[in-house]
Amino acid sequence: MARWAARRAGAAALRVRAAPPQRSASIRAAPGEPFGEAVRRLGVRNVLFSWTDLFGVMRSKMVPASAAADVAADGAGFAGFAAHLDLQPSDPDVLATPDVSSLLVLPWKREVAWVACDLSMGGKPLDQRCESLRSTPACNMSLACLQRGS
Fold this sequence. Notes:
single chain, 150 residues, alpha+beta, seven-stranded mixed beta sheet
């Protein structure tokens, strides 16, 4: 009987969890607040750096909150070719730089913050508008869909 009681006490001790990080009542970054401070204040575990591809589909890169400030300073790097940005595999990496004013906590998943990003490649803003890409297959397909109304 003593063994059973000891097991139950040990199991109960395992169920005790550490307190979750303190969260701010706000779900947005304050105006002018540095990115790293906003992420810490919001008490999230991950930040979703997001942008849209040429077709308007949201793409993203999930970054742990502990690394979010460093990634925000340098930009979240990814292969533009793999993210459907009408680039070639030989093109340099694309950097997603967050717009701090758009940082907010996802109401349906409180441990994740979302931030909209501007894209750049080689230190210049990445222009993915159809006006600048008229000769590309992806743009021609998008324009054909718009003209058909689908």
